[in-house]
UniProtKB/TrEMBL annotation:
Gene3D superfamilies: Cobalamin-binding domain, Methionine synthase domain. This is Cobalamin B12-binding domain protein. It comes from the Bacteria. GO terms for biological process: homocysteine metabolic process; tetrahydrofolate metabolic process.
Length: 212
């Protein structure tokens, strides 16, 4: 299935929505599921694009539009293939401080494709703004993505403010700072850290079971 991933990535980088949809239709004609499409095509393509941006070979606008197109395709897939996890926790995802949202988009699309309803708080959020949203929506689980270390360090005061408000929301963190320093998630008092969409799914499934 590498040919699908390569062609799909090329369509994303050229911001070719029509071609991306054609590749999706071709993939589904093989009898594979929407989960397979995300696992074998979308996620690998977005990860390679993210690496290209970090290396300087791909522009930020290409990264942004690639994530946007993948979100649109995920919504299209879910419209034709409705599935929801029963009795699920209330979950939201956000990018704290940073304005680079590709990691968030990958996780969001992946979890939605798995049947989870996820509130998308967007990117560039400040600590107080995020605290207000968590309290308003009475979340069970908050997923936070960061790109830069200063943003990652803001998670500790965020959690302190959440606890001071009396909420026991479980905070899962991810992003480059936590991959580079595997102890950082503990230093900011997060509940757990995920390196990829599969980690996030496993953690959410485990946390949902524990809350039942």
């Amino acid at each position: 299935m590498e040919k699908f991933c390569g062609r799909f990535m090329e369509a994303l980088l050229h911001i070719d929505r029509i071609k991306a949809k054609e590749i999706l239709a071709e993939f589904r004609s093989t009898g594979k599921s929407i989960y397979d499409f995300f696992d074998e095509v979308v996620a690998p393509a977005l990860e390679i694009i993210g690496e290209g941006w970090e290396e300087g070979s791909i522009t930020l606008s290409q990264v942004y539009m690639s994530g946007k197109i993948c979100e649109e395709l995920t919504d299209l897939l879910l419209a034709d293939y409705e599935t929801q996890v029963p009795n699920q926790a209330k979950i939201a995802i956000a990018t704290l401080i940073d304005h680079h949202a590709l990691g968030k988009r990958i996780i969001l699309s992946f979890l939605r494709a798995r049947g989870y309803k996820i509130l998308d708080y967007g990117y560039g959020l400040g600590v107080d703004e995020l605290v207000d949203l968590v309290l308003k929506d009475r979340l069970d689980i908050l997923l936070i993505s960061t790109l830069m270390l200063p943003s990652a360090l803001k998670i500790k005061p965020l959690i302190e403010k959440l606890r001071a408000k009396g909420t026991d929301v479980m905070v899962i963190v991810g992003g480059a700072p936590f991959v580079l320093d595997e102890q950082l998630w503990q230093e900011v008092d997060a509940y757990a850290m995920g390196k990829n969409p599969y980690d996030a799914l496993e953690l959410i499934e485990g946390m949902s079971v524990n809350r039942c």
